[in-house]
Amino acid sequence: MQGFGREVILGVGGGIAAYKSCELLRRLRDHGFGVTVVPTPSSLNFVGSATWEALSGRKVTTEVFESVEEVRHVSLAKKANFIVIAPATADLMARIAAGRADDLLTNVILASNSPILIVPAMHPEMWNDAATKANVATLRSRGYHVMDPDTGALTSGDVGQGRFPETSRILEEFSTVVGTRADLLGKKVLVTAGGTREAIDPVRFIGNQSSGKQGYAIARSAQQRGANVTLISANSSLADIEGIRTLKVESAHQMLEALESEFSQTDILVMSAAVADARPLQVADSKIKKSDYTNISLVENPDILKTLASLRKHQIIIGFAAETSENLEIAQEKMVAKGADILYLNDISGGDIFNSETTHGYILARGKEPQKVAQTTKDTLAHQLLDEALLQLG
């Protein structure tokens, strides 16, 4: 399971309560989760694939031999951070307890190491049957989270324990299972990543070694915490992140234009991209010959961070400073001069920051002492910076 992830598989068993899972799906999405529905074949008698696809915005398959090229039972299991099976019939729980793999859902369950919440719904006699009780005990002993069904009226006119729980109760139980954060739900986060390039001629440019990994980690972490994320990516080869709106730019001017169009609707801006300080005064229309390639006249690029800070209303701004030393005094001065609320200072002199999976440095924040960040992953730093931004938002 990926830490802090917000990808959920909603497994749907073949019971009349399947229609109630439509509301559960909508509420999960309202809470910032990405949901892929995997119904059992028999459940389609109650709610069809078209309904699930319309509500989730994602393709729905039920059998292992559909979309074989995707190896969906493995790919879905790897992607999912959590699995919710609602409703779970007596038959479905029996098959899971026996380790069966006779449809896509039971295959995904066997292939997954993620936490699994099972929400049973059936007639009281079936819930209280010795075989069902034994299967529930087996599942719980293996680490599955199995809810007790509610007591109430059922479709047959019977009254007893077996009713599909209310959506609010399922979400409460799911929150306990998840134990993760949704503290950016409803917030808009704007992130820049990568390194800008300033053209010299059609084949040459002024650039830097930024890979975009830190910016992508921040965008992914903000999404996992429920934020609506827009990522402005400059010349990064990293794959787009599903569910994150990504705008591609090349130069500092293009990045500034994209930021200016997005900034007013933003709550948190994270400027992790490495922006070129200068650009060629003139850009040649054709490749410059070697004999003419003697000098380049440069002109300063706009200070993007400072420009946006002057336009701010309520936004929290996080800046980055890649230096060849850990001079905290200079970093503090830069944070104030540029108008950032938070600044991450990293020392790149050892060559172990750009294109690396790890980072180290200092987090500077308004009104606080600098916080040293020992060698850590860029994902961890992403959450630390977002934590600080939330404190600044109050």
Keywords:
Rossmann fold, elongated, 394 residues, 13 helices, alpha/beta, eight-stranded mixed β-sheet
Structure description:
It is a single chain. With 394 residues, this protein is an alpha/beta fold. It has 2 domains: 7-178, 3-Layer(aba) Sandwich (Rossmann fold); 188-279 and 296-393, Rossmann fold, CATH 3.40.50. The chain is 32% helix and 25% strand. The chain is built from 13 helices and 19 strands. The protein has helices at residues 21-30, 49-56, 72-79, 90-97, 104-111, 124-127, 130-141, 167-178, 213-224, 252-262, 304-309, 328-338, 378-393, and strands at residues 7-12, 34-39, 82-88, 116-120, 145-146, 150-153, 159-163, 188-194, 198-199, 205-206, 228-234, 245-249, 268-271, 278-280, 298-300, 316-323, 342-347, 358-365, 371-377. The strands form 5 sheets. Strands 12-11-8-13-16-17-18-19 form an 8-stranded mixed β-sheet, with helices on both faces. Strand 9 (198-199) and strand 10 form a beta hairpin. Helix 3 packs across helix 5 (104-111) and helix 9 packs across helix 13 (378-393). The longest helix is centred in the C-terminal third of the chain and has 16 residues, at 378-393. It is elongated, with a radius of gyration of 26 Å. The model has no long low-confidence stretch (mean pLDDT 90).
